[in-house]
Structures are given as C-alpha cells and as structure tokens.
Amino acid sequence: MKLSKKRLHTLMFEFVYGSFFLYSLLGHISAIEMPFRYIRYLAVPFLIMLSIQGINKVTRQTVYLLMFISVLSVLSKDANLIKIVLLSLAAVGENLRDCIKFECKLRAVIIIGVVILYSIGIAPDVYAWGNGEIRHSMGFTNPNTFGLAVAILCMEFLYLSSMKINIVNVIAILALCKYVDVCSKSRTAILIILLGLLFATFNTVFPMVFKNVKVKTLIRILPILCGMITLFLIFLFFLGNGLAVRVNALFSGRLSFPMVYLQKWPITLWGMDISSVGVTLDNAYVYTWIKWGITGFIFFIAVQTCMLKNCIAINEVALLLVFICFTIYGLSERLWMNVDYNIFVLAYLNVFLKKNITKSEKRNNEY
C-alpha cells in the first residue's frame, strides 16, 4: 500500500521525536542507554530533512525569529534551544493534537516501563531526603523528574479531554497524584496536577470564568508577574529578609542556588555557559535570567506572554489552561521547557506562524 506524503511525513516525525523523547527519559539507565543513543543518532538526518522542509513553509519573520533563538543557543551554550528550533520546524504541517496523543501514549508506556525496570533493579533509584522522609526517583534521574513526567502526562490527559472533567479522568489523575506522593513526594508536581484538575473543573462547570475580562487580563500578565516575583524574592533573600528565607526553605533552597552563580559571574546580556557549577537552577525564570542572560530572560517572558495572549485571542481554552500551569510550574521546575521532554513546547511555533492553534474539539487545524 502506497503511503501518502502527509502520512509519510507524520511517520518520519513520530520516529524523530520519539527517538529524542525516548533518550531523554531512558538515556540515564546505563544498561539500556546505548541502543537508544544510536537510535537518536539515526534520527538526526531525518530531523534535518524535515526541518529543511518546514523552513520552506514558514514566514520570513518566523525564520528571523528562529535564527535569533539559534544565536541565543550558541551564545548561552544551551542545546535545548537548537532542538526546539529543529523539532518545531520538523513538526510544521503536523496536527498538534495528534502529536500530543502520540506522545501521551508513548509517555505512559515509558513511565510504566521505567518503574518496572526500577522494581527489578535495572533503573537506578536516586533517592533524596525531604522533611525527614525518603523520596524515591522510581528509576528516573531524581524524584522531581519522576513527578514532572507524571505531571505532563496528566496535562496531556486533560488537554485531550478538552479540559473537561469526567469520572475516568478524575480517578486516574487522583490515583497518579497519590502514587507520586507516596513514592517521590514531589510536592510541586502534585500541586500543578491538582491545579490542572481544578482548571478543568471550572472549565466544565463554570466555563465563562475564563472569558471574564479581569481573569483574561491577569492571565496575560502572569509570566511577567512570575518573573518579577522570582527576582524580587531573590533580592530579598540576598538582603536576608525573613519572608524570603522562609520561602527559600519552602522551595528547597531554590532562592539560595542563584547566589552560587552570582558570586562567580555577573549577569550578561546574552547568557553564558554555567555547566562548571554543580548547582541546579530549577526555577525557569532564574535559569533564563542567568543562563540566557538579560536578552534571553526578556525573550522567555515575552514568548510566554504571547502564547497566553494568542490562546485567549483564538479561544483555545484547553491549551491556555495547560500553559498557565506550565507558567506557574516554572517557579519551581524548568525541565518542562525541554522540547524532547515535553511535546507541548512545539505549540510555541503557533505564536510565530500566527496561525490558529489546534483546537481540542476540532482536529482539522494544522500548524
């Protein structure tokens, strides 16, 4: 049976994205790392080919913007930005909902597989102590990574349900929350999952709440507020403010980590390589401020703001609520920004192409 060009493009994209996604979740397991690494290598020529095809379908303004991101990637030495550019171009012409459905199924299988590998001693348990209790990674790189993987899975469940709750979704999501709480005790992941469930409940029972003018105004400025709150709390922590010290303790030292970098380097305009410091910057706003520099930080805030504004403008409620969750999640975690870990990152290209974002209830719009 002869494949159509569109179907062939879809299969190639699924192979490319799946290869990068598999390695991002399984590459740390030494017993199985090598074959997935070579599969990813094999996917690179297909990625380049799809990206070249995609660049011919976008506007000149989009090309300039992607070039800007590529320059930022080189100057800040952040390979994730290049992957965002290439995978976003490779996805041009694909249906966003179908992409998320594909990744959702794959993610569910991988999470179950990693937990099984952990239970039989193949995947490592990188445990940590929190509030006097042991936190297990369940085979992932750390407990919070496991929580994030489950949180994104729940966001995908909700998005594919058009952010409408039903008994199956509620039971499944609450069960996953309980499992994460018992195993890894990833508090932020659980809070974000519950926040997504709360948004879905409001969207089901009181859908007009997200059409309220004041609510939409608050949503539009949410990334700016999150960025300002982060920098303000860091400044207060630097001054020894008691409130900031308590917030730092609540967020497991996330306000103190930037001090390690700021004592070594000044904030730059275009970012820098910070890999030599063995302290993780989990907060997305702090990470972009230090790693991407002032330009990159402003760019990140602008992109987040544009994404939320665009979702409001075209009445794409499901994707809007998902990205509100990610914007808030950025106060604690940044790994969701990695495109090979979170397929929702591909939705950003809709902002630059200025086309309709794929609607949950209508599957015929493409980007």
Write a structural description.
It is built from 16 helices and two strands. With 367 residues, the protein is mainly α. Helix 6 (143-160) runs antiparallel to helix 7.
Determine the N-to-C terminus distance.
27 Å
Outline type? globular
Strand order of the largest sheet: 1-2
Helix fraction, binned, reads: 55-70%
Give the H and E element order.
HHHHHEEHHHHHHHHHHH
Beta strands, count:
2
Draw up the topology in text.
Elements: H1 5-26, H2 33-55, H3 60-76, H4 79-90, H5 96-119, E1 128-130, E2 133-135, H6 143-160, H7 167-183, H8 187-205, H9 213-220, H10 222-238, H11 242-250, H12 257-262, H13 284-291, H14 293-313, H15 317-329, H16 349-353
Antiparallel strand pairs: 1-2
Helix pairs in contact: 1-2, 1-5, 2-4, 3-4, 5-6, 6-7, 6-8, 7-8, 8-15, 10-11, 10-14, 13-14, 14-15
Notable characteristics:
mainly alpha; 367 residues; 2 strands; two-stranded antiparallel sheet
